[in-house]
Amino acid sequence: MNAAPRLWKELCESADFVCYENRLGAFPIFVGYIKTLTETDVLERSILGCLSDNPNASFEELFQLIPVAEKEICEDWKRTQDKVYRGYVAIQYGQDSQQWLLINAAATKGRSVAIPEVEFTVEGPKEGFVESLDTNLNLIRQRVPYPDLRIKELTVGSISKSRIAVVYIKGITNEQYLNTCIQRIEDVRFDQITDSTLLQQMIEDNSNSIFPQTIGTERPDYVAWAVSSGQICILKDGSPTAVFVPVNLWLFFITYEDYYLPWIIASVLRMIRMCSVLFSVYASPLYVAVITYHGQGISNVFLPTIVSSRINVPFPPVVEVLIMELVIELLREAGARLPTKIGQTIGIVGGIVLGTAAVEAALTSNFLLIIVALSALASFTTPVFRMSATIRVLRFPFIFAAQIWGLLGIVICTLALVAHLLRLTSLGMPYLVPVYPFRKSDLYDTVIRPPYSKFHHRFSFFRSPSPVRFDRKKAAAKKDIDE
């Protein structure tokens, strides 16, 4: 270590940095690398072996002789240092040389491609993204073997030096959206980017909104569909989540499994999903409003049941609802944070025990227990987790408004929500498009999933330079199977 070049002294302070001095030739050759990041086979066979066999080779000759594809000659010490921290081996001739030969010998350690953990599907491929950026790009390339597929690499984070890949198809992706996306990533000023979900929040149009303006996925087939539709995919080395933009509200209620099912079945499931979201948001607030202010509107069929279930409950409806909602959230958080086996037990047993005990102790009514349980189940139907969390939080302002103003409060909250959504954008694209601004031609593949014969044009709100997928007149000559 004492013989290391002067510029290498800072690297030598780390215990896992190795500075090897080769004196077989006429002048000393220094080899520096971080052993925890370097592949031993590549180092010993391709680099050190080549040095031993050619001790008198010049700098340029050694560059040609080392049998590694990724290598370069660098004259910038800062870049050399960054490369060493990424698993590269640096070679310097003599103590005072200002040139370094950099050879990629990075060790590829990590889990292999496996089934997606979050977006599991019955139909379709079972491969999911992993933490290796190169592996993830390989999965996308396999599904989009198209010459115009472009990948632009960026580096973000003053400490983490995170590799970011922006994936798009030239000629299909709108240049304005692409430039905006790249500019926002380059403008990020943060020291540690540990996951793509952090980057999601930093490039959104409105970071103060509870509604997500990007969609994360761990499915390569979903990303392949998105980029072929004109969207932009963002991946980060070390993260199994790919992010794509721009998006609208309706994409959050679409699962890619819809495209593997017959279009009628997929459409029914999609409508159930959207109705479930409305039920999850409005069920508890409507209960509070009706019981507190609008009891005369309850049907005589349900009135005896509701009165008998609430006769011994000492709390007003709003307190009763808040208690049950908080219990559900506690069970959900406990089940998510505990180990898998224990979490499942807590969720099932805790729900049954607490629900039964709450009714027997007259802390809540049977009727409300059913409503809250159904609301919780309905919120789970949302395919994207971030939107599911948004729906969970959204219920509470509606509950408080229903307690203060009754049904009028629910209407006021709804108007405020719609006004917020009307102002929201994703990379400048309106969040409620194609409903607002209204575009009749783009209404397909929103509430229903149409047959593939209707996918002859890409969505116009993605502003693709190539809006046509296929010639529908030629396709009409041979009917699709699903028509």
Features:
5-stranded antiparallel beta sheet; 3 domains; 12% strand; alpha+beta; 483 residues
The fraction of residues in strands falls at 5-15%
| Helix run count | 16
How much is the average pLDDT? 86
Low-pLDDT stretches: none
Number of strands: 12
| Cross-sheet strand order for the largest sheet | 1-2-4-5-3
Counting helices, strands and paired strands, the structural category is: alpha+beta
Kindly report how far apart the N and C termini lie: 73 Å
Organism: Paenibacillus sacheonensis
Protein name: Spore germination protein
Family: Belongs to the GerABKA family.
InterPro entries: Spore_Ger, UPF0353/GerABKA_families
Overview of this protein structure:
This protein is an alpha+beta fold. The protein folds into 3 domains: 6-104, no CATH class; 133-247, no CATH class; 261-430, no CATH class. Helices cover 44% and strands 12% of the residues. It has 16 helices and 12 strands. The protein has helices at 9-12, 40-53, 59-65, 77-84, 133-143, 175-186, 196-203, 220-229, 263-292, 303-310, 317-337, 340-360, 366-379, 385-405, 407-423, 472-476, and strands at residues 17-22, 29-34, 71-74, 88-93, 100-104, 149-156, 162-169, 215-217, 232-236, 242-245, 425-426, 429-430. Strands 1-2-4-5-3 form a 5-stranded antiparallel sheet, with helices on both faces. It has a 5-stranded antiparallel sheet with strand order 6-7-9-10-8, sandwiched between helices. Helix 5 (133-143) packs across helix 8 (220-229), helix 9 runs parallel beside helix 14 (385-405) and helix 11 packs antiparallel against helix 12 (340-360).
